[in-house]
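Changelog note: in this version the structure field was regenerated for every chain. One regenerated record is shown below for reference.
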Amino acid sequence: MKIAYILNTYPQPSQSFIRREIRSLERQGHDVLRMAMRRAEVPLVDAQDRAEGDKTEYVLSERKSVLAGALLQALKADPGQLHKAARAAIAMGRASENGVPRHLIYLAEAAFVAMRCRAEGVTHAHAHFGTNAAAVAMLSEMLGGPKFSFTVHGPEEFDAPRALSLGTKVAQSNFTVAISQFGRSQLYRWAAPADWGRIKVVHCGIEPAKFDAPAPMPQGPRRLVAIGRLVEQKGQLALIRALAQTRENIHVTLIGDGELRGEIETLMRTLGVADRVTLTGWVDEARIKDELSRAHALVMPSFAEGLPMVVMEAMAAARPVIATYIAGTPELVQDGTHGWLVPAGDVEALAGAMDACASTPLKKLSQMGDVARARVLERHDTDVEAAKLVRYMQGG
């Protein structure tokens, strides 16, 4: 197939799952046209992300005259079609905090995307996230572009389902993807019951070959690693508070960056745990794998999630997981078998789980890691999941 991936900002450090999915589709013989609205505003430290950027067309990098020309071409081709798409854009804009003018910009972007897809012989367009990328993909189809689908990750989409017109996008899509059964259940809330059948589950995946020889469990004091954007929903402030309550000798490495970094650093100093925490900023995939090999477990204290890729990566690296009992995480991590699950926002419970991990014998931790690895390899092989996605694109 010739497939277009329609994205908002791509690539970004937190979007390795999209890169893996595209790469898997290409390994299976499909041609993927990458079309993003804009470039990332943060530096790309991973060479793989920079390579993806080089392969990506950026719609908003085009001159305004080019986008206007695409709209004019759509008007000449089928005025009624453009009028219908404009009405849909206006309706979504009225429901959205972004407003009608922004959605008319999406309409121009969609006209350009439809024009490029026709020129490239694209037969299916797939968007990631139910935000503006899905709106552009939907409007593109209405302007004569290819049929479209989109993947909903959460939690952002579930925070504002009406403002994002999720029900409309599901109804107009060829099919809609949730990354977990929990995600599908949330889409059921906003889609008409008649549209439930078009909502599929396709997991994000890991590349097993990159985790072919997990490092043995390290000796010494317990080290935990947390990976993710330093933002409210990821719960790092709760993690620092929990660390201050632990009794065991535990060190935490925080990988990532974001708007809460300053507050996190201040809290570390206030609670007297600055010497027990390392902040790395964004690092590349090789460094993440190295940090996982040096850690005894991953800790994921999130308040809201979809199904975190870093949980899959830690399990593939044969490391237990300490996570919150939210969203799709319990579908993968079973409490007491692959790690520890605690209520989101419960600092005392999180501290208790961290202490439990630290006091667990290395042999037991290794056994938990091995079982976790077997589970994620069985459920989240990116080639298997990408093949499933293609079957849906082909009508299977």
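Spot check on this record: The two ends are 14 Å apart (CA to CA). The chain has two domains: 2-205+381-393, 208-379.
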